[in-house]
Amino acid sequence: MSCENATAQVLKDSGHRLTPQRLMILSAIRHTTSHVTVAQILDEVRESYPYIDASTVYRTLGVLKKMRLVSETDMGSGEAVYEWINQSKHHHLICKSCGGVTLLEDRYVASVGSDIMEDHGFKADLDHFAIFGLCASCVED
Amino acid sequence: MSCENATAQVLKDSGHRLTPQRLMILSAIRHTTSHVTVAQILDEVRESYPYIDASTVYRTLGVLKKMRLVSETDMGSGEAVYEWINQSKHHHLICKSCGGVTLLEDRYVASVGSDIMEDHGFKADLDHFAIFGLCASCVED
DNA sequence: CTAGCTGCAAAGCGTTTGCACGATG
DNA sequence: CATCGTGCAAACGCTTTGCAGCTAG
Nearest-CA distance from B138 to chain A in Å? Predict the structure, then answer.
């Protein structure tokens, strides 16, 4: 039993159909440690099923987004990245120089959210943040 | 003497040419209280000079970005927004429901930057942040 | 004069949409 | 068997690029 089985059930229960394509897309998203692009999903799925179309991936991601099973983040310039929403919130530090991605625990950001709520009544969506900058090794240059 | 004169001098000093188009683009950016899109710049400049091309605007913005005179922010889905970089840092709260934009003072975010630097050696670029969520009035629905 | 800027046109990119066929429940 | 999902193709919107002519310094 693979780990995306539970998700399959959730999809089914919500009135969506379970197709091979969707299972493969699901698998591609869950079998990465962090975020994926549509291109990466396509590459992976095409290894076993070459006829998958980008529109199918986008439409499936649309469903998963609406069900809050995946998050979409625009990392600026170009493709959006998608990530499985799980219990342990985290964020990403993206180096503008080398493109490296570091995980950042939620505690760095969490307090900001409650401060904003208190002062502005604004319910900030801080589930997944992309923070740009220069990583430790690139900052030396 | 208009307020973009100083900028004109900076451009000149850095070896760039001062063209009427650039002056008009400069004016369009500075004469807004907050951020502008390329489309808005085009609209404004075309009122006095209808032949301006989008590529000219993009190229000028590229120069201004490289000189750190304007910041580019991807507010997700669609056009990037550009903003004059000035002394008073701030961020934007963008309501996903009504699209309203609220200014957020820098102090909410500033401490996060130093924390990240301390723990990860990552120099986060937090000059201008776009924070999505639900504004006070939309959160009630 | 001559490097750099412009407008035009076209291409590029990620994403969305219309449509008829096929599969799911 | 009715609906929903798919692949294909084409369109979309924002942005970038090649190019020949023009212009600022």
Answer: 9
